[in-house]
Amino acid sequence: MLQTIMQCRAKALDVLGKLTWLPPTLARLTLGLVFFNSGRGKLGNLSQVVEYFQSLGIPAPHFQAPLAAGAELVCGALLLLGLFSRLASVPLIVTMIVALVTAKKDDIEGISSLFTMIEYLYIVMLVWIGISGPGPLSLDRLLVRQKSA
Q1: 8-state DSSP, 82
Q2: pLDDT at 149
Q3: What is the mean pLDDT of the chain?
Q4: How many Å apart are CA 124 and CA 121, to the nearest integer?
Q5: How far apart (Å, rounded) are the C-alpha atoms in residues 23 and 116?
Q6: Furthest-apart CA pair in the chain: how many Å?
Q7: Which of 72, 122, 127, 133 counts the most CB atoms within 10 A of its CB?
């Protein structure tokens, strides 16, 4: 019985080992799409975003709003492509930190409420991509292969 369980475990681990490409790919594509669409929406309604940034007390909202929108659009597209993913994650992390300390600050009652916020989850996933990279199904990986060939 124990031997059967160990064989099943070994087979399951073998199958799971072949799927290591899936988590970074899903995270990268999900975040890329979220940020690309958010940036596109903000650029399409820039005057409203400027007003919102003003209401939050963000300095230089006429500069910051297109900067944030552009960063989300461009870095989101880079994540979707898996191109310069580690670098693209940095401005998005900064954008989410700014969102937390401005737009979401009143909702943060402590560490546990912070952990339940989607912006915090985005930061965690972006840190993972920034450190681990975009995964094997990415233009980054393709460029590394071509460079080493």
Answers
A1: T
A2: 60
A3: 94
A4: 5
A5: 21
A6: 68
A7: 72
Degrees to nearest 5, angle at CA 103 with 88 and 99: 15
Tell me the pTM: 0.89
Contacts of 112 (CB under 8 A, 6+ apart): none
Gap between the Cα atoms of 24 and 36, Å rounded: 18
Close Cβ partners of 89 (under 8 Å, ≥ 6 residues apart): 75, 79, 126, 127, 129, 130
Q: At what angle do helices 22-44 and 46-56 cross, to 10 degrees?
A: 100
pLDDT, tens only, 94-103 = 999 999 999 9
pLDDT level of residue 16 (50, 70, 90 thresholds): confident
Helical spans, DSSP H, in the chain: 2-17, 22-44, 46-56, 61-81, 85-101, 111-115, 118-132, 139-148
Residues with Cβ within 8 Å of residue 92, at least 6 apart in sequence: 31, 35, 71, 72, 75, 76, 79, 122, 126
Q: Which tokens go with 33?
A: 């799409």
Amino acid at 136: P
The CA-based angle 52-103-36, given to 5 degrees, is 75
Q: Which tokens hold the place of 91?
A: 């401005």
User: pLDDT per residue over 106-125, tens digit each?
Assistant: 999 989 999 999 999 999 99
